[in-house]
Amino acid sequence: MEIKNGVRLLRGSPNTLIVGNYVVDPGQPEDRAGEILSIAGRSPVVLLTHFHADHLTATPNGAEVYAPWGEELFVASVRARLFFTHGVYVEGAVYKGSDIQLSGVVKPGEKIGPFEVVALPGHTFGHVGYYTEGVLYAGDALFGEKVLEKYGVPYLMDVDMFLSSLDKIIELDPETLVIGHGPLRVARGELRNW
Ligand SMILES: [Zn+2]
């Protein structure tokens, strides 16, 4: 679906944001890659909010991929990713993904394609969001009610960072907020009540 001129959203868990050939968080499962290519075209540029496998498993083969600065090793290597997520290399992990050849890293404050990179750490240390035309893709910097009901607490590496990232999102006051898992979007003004 189209959120606004040229900003498309592919629903899923996580949701995927697509602007032109730029794809934020391809998500999972692997065969979602085909759907992504049909929207973004044959030479996608993939931008990741963080290294978690459920956000990158559907990265199309041959895509140009950018990891958030500081998390590039975990994006590139499935072994490093699993070690860091679970503390062991578990073959049977639900979300695993594969090794990914990176084209580069993105840092908060930088611009890439139509997006501005916003630091939103807490869920992971290097977690970033992507902002364009009043739309903020916040990845796992926020969780929907369903996720919180299921897991009780959100997965966080640093609670203080997570809370200041929430403040930053409120301050940024996006017209449309898209989060990784959960409701499609939150309208302006509703955010404070979360
Ligand atoms: Zn995550």
Automatic annotation (TrEMBL):
SMART domains with a match to the protein in the record: Lactamase_B
Domain Metallo-beta-lactamase: 12-181
Name of the protein in question: Beta-lactamase-like protein
Gene3D superfamilies (alphabetical): Ribonuclease Z/Hydroxyacylglutathione hydrolase-like (3.60.15.10)
Database matches in PANTHER family: METALLO-BETA-LACTAMASE DOMAIN-CONTAINING (PTHR42951), METALLO-BETA-LACTAMASE SUPERFAMILY PROTEIN (PTHR42951:SF14)
Top-level taxonomic group: Archaea
InterPro entries: Metallo-B-lactamas, NDM-1-like, RibonucZ/Hydroxyglut_hydro
Lineage of the species this protein comes from: Archaea, Thermoproteota, Thermoprotei, Thermoproteales, Thermoproteaceae
Source organism per UniProt: Pyrobaculum aerophilum (strain ATCC 51768 / DSM 7523 / JCM 9630 / CIP 104966 / NBRC 100827 / IM2)
